Amino acid sequence: LVLRFARAGRSLFTVEDLAAARQAVGLLAQADASRLAYERGAAEERRRIAQDLHDDVGARLLSGLHKSDLPQTRGALREAIAEIRLVVSGLAGERRPLDEVFADLRHEAFDRLEAAGVALDWPLNDQTVETPPFEVDYAVQKALRSALREIVSNTIRHAQATQMSIRVDRRGDRLILTARDDGVGLAADRPRAADGIGLGLGLSGLAKRLQALGGALRLPPTAKGMTLELEVDLAGRASREPA
Predict the structure, then answer these.
(1) Which of 62, 70, 77 is closest to 108 using CA atoms?
(2) 19 CB contacts (<8 Å, ≥6 apart)?
(3) Distance CA 180, CA 159 (A)
(4) SS3 content of the chain, % helix, strand, coil (to 5)
(5) pLDDT at 90 over 80
(6) Which pTM does this prediction carry?
């Protein structure tokens, strides 16, 4: 840091001048760091949305192309359209009321489970409906949608269940979602990850996604079937902490 020609060379610099110069440089450095952090965040958000388009929308469209049954094809296309709407809202930086998010998830879960012969008990009078509405951003919407789809898929493919229930409880910014089925449960000899979550059901990956949002996935013991308890920070604070 070099200072030259105080007051056009008519006097010497003072300690106060040096302090003011250092403060100005510090403010510029802070502004530059904020700009770089914003650019990194924007680049990461673009990368995440591009990945979602590839993994979710692309996969569902491809799945729909290979289904011979027309209702199944329509279902795959409806899911792809829902994913596109979610991605578009994420690009626009839009937040959605939590009750609307769960209304969409409930409708999708009912359709998928009904087609598989599994009855779903998910009452409408849960604690997600309120005035004014509690809104969540794209990252939280995506995490909730991915989690519910993973749970429903596991129930359909592996649980051999006839019934499933889902309950939602929100306590401030914390949301607890409990899903239970009356199926065969998780076999005691099934391989497990270091966190105790069973491998092969996509649960370990789901647990990591929830942890990225300051949440957790738990498997409480149950006499029959399987119980999954999801906890999510609806503010998504963990995903915004600097690396």
Answers:
(1) 77
(2) none
(3) 11
(4) 55, 15, 30
(5) no
(6) 0.65
